[in-house]
Amino acid sequence: MKTVIRDVLTVVVIAAVIITGLQATVQKFGVVGPSMNYTLQTGQQLLVNKIVYRIHEPERGDVVIFHPPPEISDDIQIKRIIGLPGEKVQIEDGTVYIYKADGTKLTLDEPYVTNPATRPFLGEKIPENEYFVMGDNRINSSDSRTGWTLPQESIIGKAWLSLWPPKNWGVVSNHVSQEHEG
Q1: What per-residue confidence (pLDDT) applies to 60?
Q2: pLDDT of residue 38
């Protein structure tokens, strides 16, 4: 009888460790709204990698899930990182330009954008440990162009795998935006 109780307790403890480990490292997220069309659609279910940014800093092109500033929304959101700390973002004729801290001007090649921004934008220098984020559907996205940046501590994680619908199964497109001077 003692071995049965010990075996059951062992299984329960192992299951609890596995469940706790999974909750600490991944999270399910459902896409809501059109801001990431056509990369991601409303109803799409994703797995989010919650530990990746403990290993390295967020990078341009990463699709991140985050808690927005409270004055923006109470709902968890999803956007793409465009600008990094110390940079400035400019949009002109639908093209995104990055001004790095050393004054270098980069042009982003963004193949994931199907509806580019129609209004010009010139942002301020992005504060340390904060990021400039935009939705891929630039004409229908409430994002950093409205005057806020994303603190790193508000990032839940990086979009990793698409689970639903089955036609979208696979790794989420976290593009490394092609940059070139000019």
Answers
A1: 92
A2: 83
Q: Residue 58: give the domain boundaries.
A: 27-181
38's CB contacts (< 8 A; 6+ apart) are 114, 136, 137
The mean per-residue pLDDT over the stretch 137-150 comes to 87
Among residues 154, 109, 115, which one has the least CA distance to residue 131?
154
Active-site residue, from 2, 28, 35, 100: 35
100 is catalytic: no
Q: Other CB atoms closer than 10 Å to residue 51's CB: what's the count?
A: 11
Q: What is the pLDDT of residues 2-46, one digit of tens each?
A: 787 776 677 666 666 566 655 556 677 777 887 887 888 888 888
Count how many domains the chain has: 1
Asked if 35 is an active-site residue, the reply is yes
CATH of the domain at 87: 2.10.109.10
Q: Pick the catalytic residue: 50, 79, 158, 177?
A: 79
Question: What value does the mean pLDDT of the chain take?
Answer: 82
